Amino acid sequence: MSAPNIETIVSLAKRRGFVFPSSEIYGGLGSAWDYGPFGVELCNNVKQAWWRWMVYERDDMEGVDSSIILNRLAWKYSGHEDTFSDPLVDCRDCNSRFRADKLDYLPTEEERELPAPEAIAKAIRERRIKCPNCGSKDLTEPRPFNLMFRTHVGAAAEDDPSSLVYLRPETAQGIFINFANVLTTSRRKLPFGVAQIGKSFRNEVTPGNFIFRTREFEQMEMEYFVRPGEDEKIHQDWIDNCFNWFTGLGISANNLRLYEQPKEELAHYAKRTVDIQYRFFPEREEQDRQWDELMGIANRTDFDLRTHSKKPEDAEGKRLNPDSTEDLSYFDEATKERFYPYVIEPAAGVNRTVLSVLMDAYSEKTNDKGETRVILKLHPTLSPIKAAILPLAKNKPEIVGMAKAIKRSLQPLLRAVYDDTGGIGKLYARQDEIGTPFCVTVDHQSLEDEAVTVRDRDTWEQERVKVSELPEHLSTRLKG
Question: What pLDDT digit, counting tens, does each position of 379-424 carry?
Fold first, then answer.
């Protein structure tokens, strides 16, 4: 079958309890989503898989969990107050609002030589860009719109200008401002990394496409601190490692690609950035528009540690940060050198990872009755439920009792559920749609031979397994 589009996943996600529209009983809230019983399990499994790979399986990694609300100065010196913005465009005819960099138009040869904002502004002035909503060419020129959510702290907050703070738009700065704390307490030597998973908030101009772009989202970020001069090789190593991690989750390499950001797209601090993109929009005719970012792996140079430090000066001898109380440089005992480490940053969103996993796992299969069934072929590590225990006859106390006892025995080992809310065919179909790798059926024969039927989600093949051997059998199959 062809790859599913996001709308197909939206339908499945709500029907089977992965994702619900937030505040739905009050008409919802644009681009806000709640994760249901299976969605929260899938998200947790993604985060656990990332943390295990990033932190537990390495010898050079620590973790932190920084505050969502930081001192406003952190965002001043990181550059977010001045530069963390999207170019905003309004249509004068229908009053719709769009991100200028997402408008579709064909640049001229001259415009290809210009920075993207200047090229877009020129095309708008020449009326060569249409409003995606009404088709009008009467658009305003792009203007910057800061994406950080503002709030205030304190009892009389709104009357005090100094009470202004922001909800963090990224988790990275919480790592950088704790660099010295982590270094002192962990006694790490370069190279080493600091990982963090947490919520971030961006007042997106045009959120949408389900959980692909939302104003509240969860990030999995790691900052890897290295010596200047060793950054390029280590950056490439992380690009390769991250690509392999996604394929290890069961995502097809055919739906992943590397995108080298051209110079004009690079963030002001970046030496090089490579995105891992996923084919989120297979329904689009233009090949390049089918892909969008799943993870960014950036070489941030020493920008962050320098700008958060009290000592660095610019070329004219002016202090870069007169407000900082800490010097975030690194002293190498072996060489007696002091310098600011370069930083390699792999950053991925939990939401987009979950969406890519759902899209890649979606498949359909026809049974012997000619009925089309949905099968969510999730990697067993990510499956919300590992095994469903099903009684063939729910009106037989002996069968029900045996099934429930098996479920209780499996609970300490893996996520298992008991279900008797339908016929066996419907129960199988339900578990296939939520991605449960194995269904365990207790039938009349089970009372005599102490064995159960184990059904494979992907192949629908069944085998008879002794109850005493079931925990080891399932554990082996799940690992394999």
Answer: 999 999 999 999 999 999 999 999 999 999 999 999 999 999 999 9
| pLDDT(1) > 80 | no
Closest among 185, 222, 183 to 340, alpha carbons compared: 183
Please check whether the domain covering 385-479 is classified as CATH 3.40.50.800: yes
Task: Tell me the mean pLDDT in the region 122-151.
Answer: 90
| 325, 437, 438, 465 from 180: Cα distances, Å | 11, 45, 48, 55
Q: CATH topology for 6-79+148-359?
A: BirA Bifunctional Protein; domain 2 (3.30.930)
Report the pLDDT averaged over residues 362-371.
Answer: 91
Is it the case that residue 157 has pLDDT exceeding 70?
no
Q: Does residue 191 have a cis peptide bond before it, meaning omega lies within 30 degrees of 0?
A: yes
Residue 46 predicted with pLDDT over 80 = yes
- Structurally, what CATH architecture does the domain formed by 85-145 represent? 2-Layer Sandwich (3.30)
Is 46 within 8 Å of 177 (Cβ atoms)?
Answer: no
Q: Which strand ranges, in their side-by-side order, compose the sheet holding 438-442?
A: 416-418, 387-391, 438-442, 451-456, 462-466
Q: What residue has token string 């702290």?
A: 153
Digit-coded pLDDT (tens) for 171-206: 999 999 999 999 999 999 999 999 999 999 999 887
Say if CB 170 and CB 74 are below 8 A apart. Answer: no
Q: CA 249, CA 381: separation in Å to the nearest integer? A: 8
Q: What is the pTM of this model?
A: 0.90
67-106 b/e (C-beta count within 10 Å ≥ 16 → b): eeebeeebbebbebbeebebbbbbbeeeebebebeebeee
Q: Structural domain boundaries of the chain?
A: 6-79+148-359, 85-145, 385-479
Helix axes 397-410, 470-479, angle to 10 degrees: 50
What are the distances in angstroms from CA 132 to CA 203, 251, 267? 21, 32, 27
- Residue 416 in tokens: 């298992």
Stated as kind and residue range, the H or E segment containing 2 is none
Closest CA to 49 of 324, 246, 254: 246
